[in-house]
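wait is this the right file?? whatever heres the structure
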């Protein structure tokens, strides 16, 4: 009698719940196939669009995980499984993790935005967060700079993206300015000829845009001259030192008195 009741109960349960479970299984298997198809398409699409290699695994993992979550929740709802408690636990864990990792998440978000928007790229020369150097690496959480004195500086991406970034190398040219003061007694045209001669004798100065020399300002104790030339960012420091030395030597050779002498 008990066995007969068991089979009867099982028969009733199958009639009531069997279609839902069968539909859930079919949907689950079909969803797995669809997710695998989407994954392969996403991989090809990101490679075709040349998405940064550091971002491809992140976007792929995020998209596929989200699809798996949606699939599982949908299947559970179809078969009648209650998700209220699980949803509450997941929400609480999410809030706790967000609070604990707020700084890390800011750096992560900054890294994603830097890789997507590209305010600078590898080998660009930038000034940011009080640091001046060439970009060696862009990671999801931090950026590496190599300074002129061969120091590696690690800057968190959260701070880097939210502050002013000066990209020196993006335009391919950098203006080099040299200002100095001479007394009112000097011959302006003579000084300009000396400056032009100094520029001509210095290597790595670009022909375009045109160089400019002249009196920048009149001050109480003399005239402030300026020299403005354009150089490749890579040669900026070396060109600046060479040009300054030539200007000083040529002014001394012309017996023009320099400040402090």
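ok assuming it is, sequence goes like this
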């Amino acid at each position: 009698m008990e066995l007969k009741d068991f089979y009867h109960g099982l028969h009733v349960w199958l009639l009531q719940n069997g279609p839902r479970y069968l539909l859930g299984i079919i949907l689950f298997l079909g969803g797995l196939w669809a997710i695998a198809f989407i994954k392969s398409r996403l991989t090809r699409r990101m490679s075709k669009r040349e998405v940064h290699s550091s971002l491809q695994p992140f976007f792929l993992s995020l998209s596929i995980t989200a699809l798996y979550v949606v699939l599982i929740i949908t299947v559970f709802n179809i078969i009648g499984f209650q998700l209220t408690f699980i949803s509450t636990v997941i929400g609480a864990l999410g809030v706790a993790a967000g609070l604990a990792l707020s700084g890390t998440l800011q750096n992560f978000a900054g890294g994603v935005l830097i890789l997507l928007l590209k305010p600078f790229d590898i080998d660009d020369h930038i000034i940011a967060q009080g640091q001046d150097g060439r970009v060696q690496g862009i990671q999801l959480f931090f950026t590496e700079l190599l300074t002129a004195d061969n120091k590696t500086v690690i800057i968190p991406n959260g701070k880097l993206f939210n502050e002013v970034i000066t990209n020196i190398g993006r335009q391919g040219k950098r203006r080099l300015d040299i200002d100095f003061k001479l007394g009112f007694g000097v011959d302006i045209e003579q000084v300009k000829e000396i400056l032009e001669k100094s520029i001509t004798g210095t290597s790595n100065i670009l022909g375009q845009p045109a160089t400019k020399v002249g009196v920048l300002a009149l001050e109480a104790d003399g005239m402030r001259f300026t020299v403005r030339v354009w150089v490749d960012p890579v040669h900026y420091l070396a060109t600046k030192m060479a040009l300054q030395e030539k200007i000083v030597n040529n002014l001394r050779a012309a017996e023009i008195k320099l400040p402090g002498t």
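Strands lie at 125-128, 131-138, 142-147, 152-156, 166-167, 174-182, 212-219, 222-231. so i think its the right one actually
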